[in-house]
Amino acid sequence: MIIQQVKIEHLDELVPLFDAYRVFYKKDSDKEAEKEFLSDRIRNQESVIYISRNEDGLATGFVQLYPLFSSTRMKRMWLLNDLFVDPDFRGQGYSKALIEQSKSLCRETDACGLMLETDKDNHIGNQLYPATDFELDKDHNFFFWEAN
Questions:
Q1: Domain carrying residue 111
Q2: Which of 17, 22, 133, 138 could form a disulfide with 27 if both were Cys (CB 3.0 to 4.6 A apart)?
Q3: Inside any domain, residue 137
Q4: Whole-model pTM above 0.90?
Q5: pLDDT tens digit string along 104-145?
Q6: What's the CATH number where 77 sits?
Q7: Model pLDDT for residues 59-79, shown as the tens digit of each residue
């Protein structure tokens, strides 16, 4: 298993995984727009993306992290925004390896931690995250305002 940081030359391998991730979350497929979105994140250094590969070099999954800051901790933190493994490769440790790489980024950047959210009906994720030492925050409310 190989985990590597995505560079612009990996975009053609990343887009099908990103597309499948978005479709999983009931968004319309739009590979051209997805490629542009990911290209902008990479070129502008607005996110860190890691891709997982099997022993044959085939892309199997990805994780995308966005930088945030905690004022109370006065440190950087990372938002683990996207995590996806191709269904053909699930149950083989790719998700856990991508999460471990995310934790390494956190340590390397002296960040205070990782945060994430997932749907309540994402049964796989809701089992995976506690198994990788994430704790469900039951003490805070999560609010969202959507611009129209």
A1: 2-131
A2: 22
A3: no
A4: yes
A5: 999 999 999 999 998 888 888 889 999 999 999 988 888 888
A6: 3.40.630.30
A7: 999 999 999 999 999 999 999
